[in-house]
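Input record (one chain):
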Amino acid sequence: MHTSSTGALPTSDASFAPTRWTVVLSARETGSADAGAALESLCQAYWYPLYAYARRLGQAPPDAQDLTQEFFARLLEKRWLAGADREKGRFRSFLLTAFKRFLANEWDRARAQKRGGQAAHLPLDTALAESRYATEAAMELPADRLYERRWALTLLEQTLVRLRTEFGKAGHATEFEQLKPFLTADTSTLTYADVARELGLSEGAARVAVHRLRRRFREVFREEVSHTVAAAEDVDEELHHLLAALTE
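The corresponding structure, as predicted from the sequence alone:
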């Protein structure tokens, strides 16, 4: 892959290739290694919204940590995958529904377990999670809406990580850091002249670089969303839902 300020950024295949959640759904009854790895990858990426959900319900940090960890320990043992409905197969919805059932059915037993006495099936940075939760801008949101917002923000974070990696591999890490504010900040505070000066480009070339970065951002974000739904026709609806969650 080659990335430059003036060259074309990599684009994605427009076809809907099998993604992590589709792998899990198609192989959930066979217990294949691919399905297990795909599920673990999804859980590792998207566990924080559930932690924030538990905290918003009033759980103290240690209890929220224990509940989240125990939930994923069980989920990764594939006990509940049979409940995933392929026709309504958004990983976001499946995960929250399963977590609610876990809290309703296993609350007391999970709380009574000795902390640290069970092997961690999924390493969770719970110290970082609590730090993030303490600074949540959406603290007044009900638990379900906070979960949706955190899910959308996590997808955006995953997208930025991928873009940073792409630029870094191409030797343009500095360029990405200079251009990134055009994705995440109020553009009224930014000028193309400033970024052009920092990168040693003409202002016109800087505009082209920003345009291409934004286009690649949209492509990668769409790909990340596609990893969490069961069919190509679900992607646009899920994108609409996530963007609404961010603007509420």
